Amino acid sequence: MARTPLGMVAALCLSSVAHAGTVPQYDIIDLGLVSPNDFASQGFGISAGGVAYGRSLGSSNQAWSWTQSGGLVALGTIASRPFYVANGANDSGMVVGNGTTTSFGAGALPIVWNNGVATALSIGGSDVGRANDVNNAGVVVGSLGSGINERGAMWVNGVAQIITATTPGGAFMTTAFAVNDAGMVVGTGIDPNNLARNVAILYDSNTGTAVEIPNLAGDNGGIPFGLSEAGHVVGSSSFNQSGSNPFIWDPVNGITEVPLPFDTSQGSARGVNSSGWVVGTASNAFAIPFLYDGESTYALQDLIDPSSGWDLSTNTSSSAMGISDNGTIVGTGVFNGEIRAYAMVLVPAPGVLSLLPLGGVMATRRRRR
Predict the structure, then answer these.
(1) What is the Cα Rg of the chain in Å?
(2) C-beta separation of 173 from 192 below 8 A
(3) Which pLDDT score is estimated for 348?
């Protein structure tokens, strides 16, 4: 999503912190549940300007959005779908995602929420559709169809259109994951000449052209999950869909492998902001959410108060899915034994002005100065 003036200031502050060589400091917030009868919540990302989104599981099974000033807001439902997930949001609070017939995503119907009110997007003649992201112009991206018929799609002014452009090698997009305000779209695709590999595709909706994002050395494919307003792309690189190495790419610097946190063997980058800070999840026996600030990779567990009640390192439910332009990280962890969506709010380095007021249910700050 577009960087607002606040986001631009945040990017400058982030840059100064990163290049100072200091370890980032974070407070962590429990984003809560839609209903007190729900048993879990999951955080799936955050817009550049700070609108987070995810879902609550249990009696409500509703999607939600969250801001630091307004807290968690339940998103509306429609009659035909009992389960919901929010996958993307813009800085104005427009949220997109899916309504499904099961908690596992069957019968997916793309949904857009304006002011919390749910409206189904058109799927044309397709059997299902999925909405994954939206930019500040209201352009939605995702996919239409299922199985071998699934194709990357865009909704412009509510009208669905398949992304038909192919790369110079003939690969086509099956799912669009992210869109920015420049009209760039990233998604995964298929190479008809080698069905064993994933193809990371960058589509320019202004020119209608598509190119393949390069792979890391030794790999032949990838999946691009995240896209910043500055044009950074992050995801996972692999060989014939085997292994998973996190990467960051931009048109100036090309592709770079994101170092994994200590004692992990593979991982995937899921979110990136306009300063090039990357979040994702690595693994060993457990899921290990991480932050890469352009110089160093940190396990998120090491950036929060060890007495906070949060476990982000000894379970398989934890993740880091998105990072805003002011450094707020959103994902899922285990809080006092319960699966909960979190927001980690960057604590400014000494002498750096705090950009946002703190709010919500907050764990104790970790002071490592």
Answers:
(1) 19
(2) no
(3) 83
